[in-house]
Amino acid sequence: MSKSLVIAEKPSVAQDIVRALTPVAGAFSKHDEYFENERYIVTSAVGHLVEIQAPEEFDVKRGKWSFANLPVIPPHFDLKPVEKTKSRLNAVTKLARRPDVTELINACDAGREGELIFRLIEQYAGPVKGGKRQPLGKPVKRLWLQSMTPQAIREGFENLRSDAQMRGLADAARSRSEADWLVGINGTRAMTAFNSRDGGFFLTTVGRVQTPTLSLVVEREEQIRKFVSRDYWEIHADFAVQAGQYSGRWFDPAFKKGEDEHARAERIWEEQHARAIAQAVLHQSGTVQEQAKPTTQASPLLFDLTSLQREANGKFGFSAKTTLALAQALYERHKALTYPRTDSRYLPQDYLNVAQDTFRALSHSRLGHLAPHAAHALERGYIKPSKRIFDDSKVSDHFAIIPTTQPPSGLSDAEQKIYDLVTRRFMAVFYPSAEYLVTTRITTIPTPSLPTPVQHFKSEGKVLVKPGWLAIYGKDADSEIATDKDGKAGDKGKSLVPVQPGETVQTDAAEVKALKTRPPARYSEATLLGAMESAGKQVEDEELRAAMQEKGLGTPATRAAIIEGLLNEKYMLREGRELIPTPKAFQLMTLLRGLQVQELSRPELTGDWEYKLNLIEKGKLSREAFMADIAAMTERIVRKAKEYDRDTIPGDYATLATPCPCCGGVVKENYRRYACAGQDGASEGCGFSFTKSPGGRTFSVEEAEQLVRQRRIGPLEGFRSKAGWPFTAELTLVPAEDGKLLKLEFDFGDDKRQEGDGELADFSGQQPLGKSPADEGMVYEWGNSYVSELAVPTAQNPKPTSTFKVAKVILQQPIEPEQMRKLLAEGQTDVLDKFISNRTRRPFKARLVWDAQAGKVNFAFEPREGGKPARGRFGAAAAGKTATKTPAKAASKTTVKAAAAKKTARKPAAGKKPSAALAAVIGEAPVARTEAMKKLWDYIKANNLQDPSNKRTIVADDKLRAVLGADRVGMFELAGKLGAHLQ
């Protein structure tokens, strides 16, 4: 009997599909990698299982970072498995090739990326002909889900889309992937080759979308740095009337906006003029003109992903990545929201009944803060057709994010916040507009002694008459304070005391406020997402911004990853909610501008590429034409870098305040180096210079100043060895071979070199950190280490008798003096969270503890079952012994030690029989406790049961709940819960 193979994107989605199909298609039997019944086989990927690569004859193995092999533009792309999920890929392709499988159903996420994941798997499963993989050749259909409720899944299977319907999306998905490969590989290799011309290896990553996004942040920072603040003054007066007092701000009624972007009607540019006006109006009488008019404020539109990410960043400080993960969990796991990776803020016109059903579900839910508002909307008949909500022309493949008819329970605090944001917005768009009465009061004061005989003051009041949709948010007039154009709180939210017709007012006070113009604000994730959405054009109007979305940078689904990528590559830093570009980012922008590679430095051009991908999706542009444009763009980028023959790149470079340490001349920055420019700052100088980017990390101007002034800086993080390993080090300026100049060197804390030089340590000016646990000496800071006074040569102890040394930086984690004091006094430090494993390159947390038995400092991890901390050792370099090896060599040394420590093999633990509940999760075979724990974790990860906002919390499904006895448990509780189920 022929069967359909359903391929989902994640195991959890495959399970949801099985649950939804069982009532209509029969029970499924469970196998290791799939579910099967008489009609369907349901399996899943785990995200991307296949990636594209250049064919073997085009793949550059050696010298790939040189211009000689660029550009790389293969005529077609081969496929290769993602190494860590290779076994999963083999299992899926084996199912696809089964003779009884006559049809494939793509059940991956409904979007460009989900389409690509499936298409690459399907092609990889096909035969190889002429050195190129061919499609499998079996019919393909598409399951397109906007919601993950069982009813929505069953309806999706009743309305499967044809392969022809999905051809445009498939072409756009492949084109996006190949375009990113071409620009990323060639651009990164070309810029790296350019930056590494003077020796060393300076990895310079660029991307079709990430680099124009970075240019937005760099340009904003340049505006801030170049901004020259101007003083201005405002006059604020208090006026007395029979009913009380009100305030007003002076303004010029004749003001017209001109070329001065900082000019405003209320700003006065001369202090003397402002004070003259304030003095002239004080204690003077005036008259009032008042106008009151009703105004309305409609609810904002429904959320798409970008607007949700912006709102969550502004309200809760959530990163775009966190918001996406939470929304995805609410969609997949809780079935509480519709598909989140959408760029639409509208619903289909036939969705009115669904909206009414959603309100009914909410009105009967246990969500006490939402149910009454849903019930009220149903009673008043608010849920009705509206072009602001239902518009087919503004819905492509996905509609706005809204709640489903399945209100959730058991959400984490972060999930609840996102759910509430979406649900309140969904209800609000159906509610009536909020109604206000806005009063504008103009107070005029005669000033015959001044050139302008009458002065005008404006007061504004805004009174909420009918809350409308604001009732859902619990807001009233006092919380709705307006803001002016500069983002400062205004007075529109204030109530104004009444003035009788013809009443004369008295000026009780007139205050002159000295203020300064402010530079534009740095980007936060919320404002950067908005800028990406409009390709850098600052558009506040919602309708106009929606019209520009098709030319944005990236897509709603990819923007969070782009921002995170820039942070991971150290092009940006996150300080609070601000995103700040690093010196590495400025250097890249200087290079791209100097090479005139506009394609990678102008957001609007890259936004145009995204627009063309949308045209491919709609069948209005051929894939071949788009890829030809990308290939031409790639060739131009490489050619510009190859052919650039000048000594330096033009740019806005700094001059250091600290003089040259060799001749006292002026030290200036150029593209590659800081170099002496002679006494006049315009000659060749004495020859002193040092690279701006040692080890692939670019100095800031402040760091360069410190290095020249103190001849030492660090320890600094972010360096990479030639093998790509991250490391931390100090840098010093030491005498060059000729003895006349200074040169830059890494200092890895090789204290033996100091010992070899015969230099005696002198601790006379230092306070000891504590007593050494290894000997009778006191511990002091010495070079890059904390050492016992008996471990280094001193005048009192010329020959060291101890080995107690601890590095100030261990596996990239700085060890502060305060932590060293704790170690010496209490035997352990606090938990430190910035250690980076040499083996996995992943961060980990641990304490440093004194291990008396081993006679050295070791790691102690968080307590396991029984309360005993797990311990681990680190190599000699980490502990403070000689550290002259590169991080890569240190890692090899650690691996050798670990292998030696494992020579004595432990006997396997006796197996124990799992309980029926545990057997349903890990199988019935007897297992050791450690093996049971491993299988339990495999199940948790395979089914995506970790809370995305707190990975240490496990959210149980039906099977796991029977084992744990609760819906949610902490990861450290697992071992205790497991014990009761092993007999």
TrEMBL record:
Residues 907-983 form the DM2 domain. Residues 3-139 form the Toprim domain. NCBIfam families: PRK07726.1, PRK08173.1, PRK14724.1, topB. InterPro entries: SWIB_domain, SWIB_MDM2_dom_sf, SWIB_MDM2_domain, Topo_IA, Topo_IA_2, Topo_IA_AS, Topo_IA_cen, Topo_IA_cen_sub1. One of its GO terms (biological process) is DNA topological change. Residues 872-891 have a biased composition (Low complexity). It is an enzyme of class 5 (isomerase). It catalyses: ATP-independent breakage of single-stranded DNA, followed by passage and rejoining. Its EC number is 5.6.2.1. Belongs to the type IA topoisomerase family. Residues 755-774, 868-891 are annotated as: Disordered. One of its GO terms (molecular function) is DNA topoisomerase type I (single strand cut, ATP-independent) activity. This is DNA topoisomerase. CDD domains: SWIB-MDM2_like, TOP1Ac, TOPRIM_TopoIA_TopoIII. Residues 166-638 form the Topo IA-type catalytic domain. One of its GO terms (cellular component) is cytoplasmic replication fork. It comes from the Bacteria. The lineage of its organism: Bacteria, Pseudomonadati, Pseudomonadota, Betaproteobacteria, Burkholderiales. Keywords: DNA-binding, Isomerase, Magnesium, Metal-binding, Topoisomerase. It comes from Lampropedia cohaerens.
